[in-house]
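Researcher: I've got a protein sequence and the SMILES for pyridoxal-5'-phosphate. Could you write out the 3D structure of the bound complex as structure tokens? I'd like something to compare against our soaking experiments later this week.
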Amino acid sequence: MIHITKEAQQKLSSIEWQDGELPRLDANVTGGCGLTINYLFIFDQARKNDTIYHSHGVSIRVDHFTKSYLEGNPPTIDYSDTDGFQVINDVAFDSC
Amino acid sequence: MVEYHQLIFEISQSGRTGADLPESDVDPIELDEKFPKHLLRDTPAELPEVSELQLVRHYTALSHKNYGVDNGFYPLGSCTMKYNPKINEDVARLEGFSRIHPYQPAETVQGALQLLYELQEDLATISGMDAVTLQPSAGAQGEWTGLMIAKNYHQQNGENRSKVLVPDSAHGTNPASAAVAGFDTVTIPSNKNGLVDLEALKKRVDQDTAALMLTNPNTLGLFEKDIVEIAEVVHEAGGLLYYDGANANAILGKTTPGKMGFDIVHLNLHKTFTTPHGGGGPGAGPVGVTKELIPFLPVPRIERDGDNYIWNVDEPLSIGRVKGYYGNFGILARAYTYIRTMGPEGLRQVSESAVLHANYLKKRLETHYESPYAQFCKHEFVLSGAKQKKLGIRTMNIAKRLLDFGYHPPTIYFPLNVEECIMIEPTETETKETLDAFADSMIQIAHEVEEDPDIVLDAPHTTVVGRLDETKAARKPVLRYTKSL
Ligand SMILES: Cc1ncc(COP(=O)(O)O)c(C=O)c1O
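Model: Sure. Here is the predicted complex with pyridoxal-5'-phosphate in place.
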């Protein structure tokens, strides 16, 4: 469901998580007339109905809403020292 | 029983017709003798073959799947989905209006020209402007027309101002129109009260500012109380003030953009003035201007010459024609009917009721949803679904759940500066019972989010079509029907 590049895995494994915090892949709706889903990669607390993906020793939270956009369209989480974490794969839909 | 939810292509039967044509009494023509081969089809077009009754049932069934203001509540913020009185339709269909042609000589259509002229005058009064053009056929086209007027005005003064300022809460058409008119846009942030940040504005206004575009009340439904100072700041730098009239329903008969210091105004007749909205038009976005800008208005302009109405095409500084003929006449006839049936006092009551309804709903809902701006609102207000997001439910889910209660959802995810935004505009034409029923549904959904989230997550449950796979539709759109589908 989610691809994580080697660079991102390494970085995530090196982070010490505190107080219930974990990384989250979060579908964010923006737009108005034409709606676009773009993914944010953030660190935050659990939400009700979260799913946790475990991959190569890292855990990533996804809420129920975000999950519905992942099926069949797995985004990739990447990391570089210059740009930080990045999610590749946005979805535009419902433009009028 | 045949289900009429199929495509018309699917009910087609080879050889069936809806109309019989008489035997042809002329010799057939060989098509390939008359047309080049590459223009001719190899196989016949797959047109549906159905009887007249099948056709009627098919489209009647489709029409029942529509949802409009005539079906139910439609609180789509920023869109003013109010009731469109049926008398508008009667007037627009009068033969003297519906059976004339734009190419008829002016002396044979004096009544229609009088209607257009008087509508221009009425809209000028309502907006506090000195003259109005009825040509633009949408709000966005009005914006572009207004910005072209601003551009030509500055050029006439020997200036090539390149920037248009827009607040971060602006409708997407504002920066888009500015770009199409050849300007660069500069975003002005809102302050924590949801209003234009005056200090940020002062820093960004300069000798390159062609105009500031603003709607007041703004898209958060809040009145820009510093509007007079905002106008001064822009005017002192030589810029013009553009009023996006999308929210004029809040100010009819109470104040005018002219009084607030605006120089150019567009009004959306399909919002404030009860002409049909949606479905891609036809709409109308008349533009009003102050005296100095009149020479730049589009041509032709309707003028009065004694007792006659005439077309004036002789305006050397005009930006030219922006629409074929003279705008969407049938729509203009409807707006004229509305204004004349309401009268000035009626229009003032429209705004008072629109504002009262919005504040009533805001009060009922703000203990259940986050309300980012505490002050009284004008004709619409925004809530945030941030509280529900922490419980794993998004504004999108709430909007879909509202479909189960039979409502068109509010505008969502706009303005962009409010997280998980829900933007509600009830309009003046709804009853208190409707407002209460809608509030009850919104409150029930807020409870469901806490107690029974699955019912919200899986909504809608009662619509003809359930949850669509939006991602698939975006990535693998099927834009062409083929029989094999
Ligand atoms: C604030 C605002 N400005 C401008 C527009 C553009 O109007 P139109 O859709 O007629 O082009 C809209 C319409 O949705 C709007 O809400």
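Model: Helices of chain A lie at 6-13, 64-70. Residues B 78-79, 138-140, 171, 173, 215, 219, 244, 246, 268, 283, 285 surround pyridoxal-5'-phosphate (CB under 6 Å).
Researcher: Great, I'll pass this along to the crystallography team.
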